[in-house]
Amino acid sequence: MLSSEDNELVTNTDPGTPMGDLFRRFWLPVALSEELPGPDCVPVKLKIMSEDLIAYRDTDGNVGLMDAFCPHRGAPMFFARNEECGLRCVYHGWKFNKDGTCADVPNTPEGDTYKHKVRITAYPCRESAGIVFAYMGPKEKQPPFPDFDFNKVPSTNVYVTKFQLECNWLQATEGDFDPSHVPFLHSTLDNNATNPQFQFQAPSPLTGVATRNALSGPLPEDEPFPFAVGNRRFKKDDRRAKDTLEDIDGAMYAISRISRPDGKEQANVILRFLMPIYCPPGIVRPEHFAGNFRVPIDNERMMFFRLRWALKPMTPDDIVYYKQGGYAYPEMIPGTWKTKANVFNDYEVDRLGQKNHLYSGIKTFPLQDIAMMENQWGPIAKREYEHLVSMDYHMIYLRQKLLRAARDMRDGIEPKEPWLPQTYHYHSASALVENGDFQAAVAAAKEKARRSIIDPMPESVAAPITANGGANGSEAAG
């Protein structure tokens, strides 16, 4: 549990708060490139980090992001004319460039000199993988853009969209750090034999481990709830409870020792989190990588950017699966960023299906998580009411990491992670345990994990494994 004071500290991202200031030291996703389809297109209303903003693409094709209200008398810039590399307010003709400078004040004789005294709040933007990123912090503290591997692949290798959630960013993010929910929430009642999340099974090119399609072995004879729990029960010495968690250059990793089918042992270092919002859940289809990015709209709503990318172009089947498959991505209400099944209609839960097939009765993978996230004592979870257990250790580590960063920010200590752009191409990796020296294998795996996926990968990075493993390298993680 967290105290109510710590819960407020870690969930409140309003301007001027410690967590709000911390977020504003990083590049954050704010929109999809497709929302701004061409030069001088229609501006788009955004609310990010409790700020009302307008995004637009100027005459040269560059994205601008500025305050939603003209500094003259607060007129709405959404109705502005997008032309000649800037937005011109239609109320009195004041014009602003994407860097926030005032280019023209035509409604008064002193306009030519007065324009130099006026600015509109504006934030620098970058585009990558079909996402518009913005830096919303102090100009003098702007860091380099993160060296994401997906920066380096063409648009044909990417699928990304977004949807709005009715809850605080943290309780949605915490779902990626809960290793004991997967055997329940995301399972089927036939020992996962027909579970859609396991329809694409292949060894991860990073760890050499394939997703298992069963739960935790045969049904124990002494299980008191054979149907509702069955072989989902976590027992003493469960391998999933033995991860060692640590930071590598500010990136959160889970380190584990696994036994391979060939009798050898392997050290896995699994990337779990990059500050302040980047969750890379792993391999979701053969050779497809994933990213979950959750950005506050305000303290009670957030936007979920759900990215899939590959080293090779997406096939038509890939796109059909993501857009229309109904499992990896939810169906959307046309013209909105809201899911058709949502908090207001109980996610169209199928109670008959819950009794006979899906453990949750909710058909789409992310909505299974979202149904739990959006309803934890309301839009901001009351963590002071929790009763945590040992299997919550990944989430506890994450909270402690975020709280330390927020307290440092409050005390005037700047975060180091924005200035380590190379960390954002770190990934998961593995190495064989030789001569029983597990720590040497961990060190070798860490070194591999620091390399970019885009760079040529040695054969030894991906061990030829065909079974074993857990949720961290599968769609079950994200």
Description:
The chain contains 10 helices and 20 strands. It is globular. With 478 residues, the chain is α+β, with helices and mostly antiparallel strands. Strands 12, 16, 17, 18 and 19 form a 5-stranded antiparallel β-sheet that branches. A 4-stranded antiparallel β-sheet has the order 2-3-4-9, with no helix packed on it. Strands 5-6-7-8 form a 4-stranded antiparallel β-sheet, with no helix packed on it. It starts with a helix and ends in a 29-residue tail after the last helix. A hairpin with a 5-residue loop joins strand 7 (95-96) and strand 8.
Q: Round the mean pLDDT to the nearest integer and report it.
A: 89
Helix and strand sequence:
HHEEEEEEEEHEEEEHHEEEEEEEHHHHEH
The major sheet is characterized as: 5 strands, antiparallel
Ends apart, CA distance between termini? 24 Å
User: Level of helix content?
Assistant: 10-25%
Q: What gyration radius follows from the Cα positions, in whole Å?
A: 24 Å
**β-strand amount:** 15-25%
Give the low-confidence spans: 457-477
SS-derived structural category:
alpha+beta
How many H/I helices? 10
Q: How many E-type strands?
A: 20
Q: What general form does the structure show?
A: globular
